[in-house]
């Protein structure tokens, strides 16, 4: 045949395309020298002007962390992490005081967001999205505060919450992910610098989608965010999290903790589009993403829904989970995970059924390309108290090329005789037939691959808020450019 | 419009086409018949540019261009359309979305403006009526869960939307009941025009009762061994292929 896509120069150029969001913004950082001991933790706490309970909690966490061992997983290859070479605090230097509006924000910072295609003012104007921008570790701009304030919704940086609502923070912090939970969550508890705090009072339907754009910026600064979302009785909230990061030579550690608490009849929808630097074609320099995300349906009839699109990071280790304590509560997990080049993704969920008639749904779509390795690891645990619990799990894997891998590790532990647990799994290769069918209709190879992959992911994308769904599709397109040919 | 000279081609490793010659002019309908394994489907795949088929000799000129140098998508954009014998399912990809993407890629290639969703919906509704397809089709995935007949109708629907210059129909009649065959044939006939050439690859004469060809060719051993008009098809129906082979060998 005359045209051989394998030697098509445009395709090769696409494959070689560098990470689009790789750049470093030149802003003076107030960075603590690398290393970790109790003094560093005291320094972080002092810099943030924290109350005593916060410092005590950090120190308890740190002392516990010292007794723990770094975990290792069967399907991940990880370079050793030197925790003493990480700088645990970095904040953009305040020019005078903290900015009160967008106009006061460092123009360079706004420029960074512009490069990422998410200009704050544009976003604000567009969809009524309130943005609590986390730049490195400190929040610099918060919009739509007024409207949220009227509804009684608290949406602010974690630091601000510690200052203004210490009793709420003290009540809920660590109540879903205790400081003893796991190595990375414990480290986070000791050193976290900032993050987001959301509190939706009883009966309130949050009037807009809440959105945070995270960015890792200062070199060698591990990022330890902490997010806490509390939805009181009968309230509703939808939270969007999206991230991109600049290019780096060394692996960067990212160990965030997200805690969700839904009281009786409350609903929390948490959506993530994650696009951190995955490393170059050989897998050098990508971000390590070790995240602990867990929500508890504490009250009856409550619901927590996780939706994630994971295209970035060198290594992703992440299992957004639901503890279904309240009777009739519902947990959902919808996930698309992409592993291209030398990326490794080990992701999944845990659904812990405790209350009666609790239901959970898991839909996981793994896409592997290049030398990427994708693993789904999921646990469905039904305790004796969870009478009539139901779970449905669907895991599908799509392989592009013949050097990648897909692995599925479903665990089920059912300890009540009256429960229904279903598991379906498929693995398919992106078909030459499908590709040729699209080409023969005049559609380019890149568009055809995107179309087929997006079709594969449709069940997850339809769970995302509209504007995020579009972004997710674009991300997927960028992540898989040139993967078939 | 299409001029094939001394075409030799492999399907995988196997030599299937052995010096095939064919001239197709604008406005003509050609039927290519032949026994199993004679190379009919290979010819259709080679013309559409499928990977896994290798041309080892000869030339194919389409509208004055060397067709074999074009990528499959560029062939489609230049007006070549293949109606598949076994249309593939693409789960989750909306039928209409795929077709609109194809049409707009072709329009863009021609320097025409892209169609918006409303214009496109109007167009496709009109074409669907012709193919007797119901509204639910609009929301289904590409060939997802379609019956054999629905898949074939969908191929002709795509053809009527993309309006190719050269349409290749690969065994479009196979697996169709008589009602579906009538609908498909009516769809194809509505596309006959002085600017368009249609090449039907078929096993049976049955289709030709509904779509009357101008020329009938018998393909055997990777070459066209006999050409004629419609009456040749009728004769093949009666007498089979062996006499043509013997005649050619003599």
TrEMBL record, chain A:
<protein>
    <submittedName>
        <fullName>Fe-S cluster assembly protein SufB</fullName>
    </submittedName>
</protein>
<dbReference type="InterPro" id="IPR000825">
    <property type="entry name" value="SUF_FeS_clus_asmbl_SufBD_core"/>
</dbReference>
<dbReference type="Pfam" id="PF01458">
    <property type="entry name" value="SUFBD_core"/>
</dbReference>
<dbReference type="InterPro" id="IPR010231">
    <property type="entry name" value="SUF_FeS_clus_asmbl_SufB"/>
</dbReference>
<comment type="similarity">
    <text>Belongs to the iron-sulfur cluster assembly SufBD family.</text>
</comment>
<dbReference type="InterPro" id="IPR037284">
    <property type="entry name" value="SUF_FeS_clus_asmbl_SufBD_sf"/>
</dbReference>
<feature type="domain" description="SUF system FeS cluster assembly SufBD N-terminal">
    <location>
        <begin position="148"/>
        <end position="206"/>
    </location>
</feature>
<feature type="domain" description="SUF system FeS cluster assembly SufBD core">
    <location>
        <begin position="214"/>
        <end position="456"/>
    </location>
</feature>
<dbReference type="Pfam" id="PF19295">
    <property type="entry name" value="SufBD_N"/>
</dbReference>
<dbReference type="InterPro" id="IPR055346">
    <property type="entry name" value="Fe-S_cluster_assembly_SufBD"/>
</dbReference>
<dbReference type="InterPro" id="IPR045595">
    <property type="entry name" value="SufBD_N"/>
</dbReference>
Automatic annotation (TrEMBL), chain B:
<feature type="domain" description="ABC transporter">
    <location>
        <begin position="2"/>
        <end position="246"/>
    </location>
</feature>
<keyword id="KW-0547">Nucleotide-binding</keyword>
<keyword id="KW-0067">ATP-binding</keyword>
<dbReference type="InterPro" id="IPR003593">
    <property type="entry name" value="AAA+_ATPase"/>
</dbReference>
<dbReference type="InterPro" id="IPR003439">
    <property type="entry name" value="ABC_transporter-like_ATP-bd"/>
</dbReference>
<comment type="similarity">
    <text>Belongs to the ABC transporter superfamily. Ycf16 family.</text>
</comment>
<dbReference type="InterPro" id="IPR017871">
    <property type="entry name" value="ABC_transporter-like_CS"/>
</dbReference>
<dbReference type="InterPro" id="IPR027417">
    <property type="entry name" value="P-loop_NTPase"/>
</dbReference>
<dbReference type="Pfam" id="PF00005">
    <property type="entry name" value="ABC_tran"/>
</dbReference>
<protein>
    <submittedName>
        <fullName>Fe-S cluster assembly ATPase SufC</fullName>
    </submittedName>
</protein>
<dbReference type="InterPro" id="IPR010230">
    <property type="entry name" value="FeS-cluster_ATPase_SufC"/>
</dbReference>
